[in-house]
Structure formats: C-alpha cells, structure tokens
Write a structure and sequence with these properties.
There is one protein chain. By secondary structure, the protein is mostly helical. It has one domain: Nucleotidyltransferase, domain 5. It is 42% helix and 8% strand. The strands form 2 sheets. Strands 1-2 form a two-stranded antiparallel sheet. Strands 3-4 form a two-stranded parallel ribbon. The longest helix is centred in the last third of the chain and has 17 residues. The protein starts with a strand and ends with a helix. The model has no long low-confidence stretch (mean pLDDT 88).
C-alpha cells in the first residue's frame, strides 16, 4: 500500500493468495481521505472497510458486477502513483526476480529496496 507514491505499509502473502485478502490488514491504522484500488479489490467488504474509516472508496466495479458503483475517474488516475512505486521497487533485481527463497529474507530485501526508494 502506498501513500503519495511512497510505501506506507507492506504485507507479504503467499504467491497463490489473492491480494484482496489483505485489504483490511493494509487499511488498519492508516489515515486516509480516499482509498484507491483496481478492479481486483471490488468487493462489498473492502468498500465498507474503506468507508468505515471515513474515506471515499475509488474502486471501479467489475464488468460482471450486479450492482455497479459510480467512481471518480479523475481521482482514480492517482492510482498510477502506487504503480510507479512498484516499478521503482522492481528496479532492484533481487526483488524483481525473488532470489530469496524464504519469506523472511525476501521481505527484508523488499523493505531495504523500499527504503532506497524513500531516500531518492
């Protein structure tokens, strides 16, 4: 999860786990005015969790959604800040190719790379 294009909180999950399962964990303790995410996070649970924290949920509805929501297309463009953070993080080959086999070591290198991005 990122704030203004910088890391705010990172949670490591198994490769087969969907990212949406960690949405509430990522939201805990982070103040926000808006929660921006891609269509993969389109679920009532996530939207309610964002709104319960007093933030606006800017998450586009999936095409197959039975109850599509209106979303702010201009605010959604800010999602690109988070995508740019991940691109910068993957410039570190050790993170991009996941040389580390244990979750602990891999998360350590992700955190070091995140610090390097913060220091730029």
């Amino acid at each position: 999860m990122t704030g203004l294009g910088l890391p705010a909180k990172l949670v490591l999950t198994p490769g087969q786990a969907a990212d949406v399962t960690q949405a509430e964990t990522l939201l805990e303790g982070l103040p926000a005015e808006v929660g921006i995410a891609d269509k993969g996070y389109d679920s009532r649970t996530v939207v309610k969790a964002v709104e319960a924290r007093g933030a606006e949920a800017v998450i586009p509805s999936r095409k197959t959604s039975k109850e599509p929501r209106a979303d702010d297309r201009e605010r959604y463009k800010d999602r690109n800040l988070g995508e740019r953070f991940w691109r910068r993080l993957k410039e570190y080959r050790r993170v991009a190719t996941r040389y580390e086999k244990t979750a602990r070591n891999f998360l350590g290198f992700v955190l070091v790379a995140s610090i390097m991005v913060l220091l730029r």
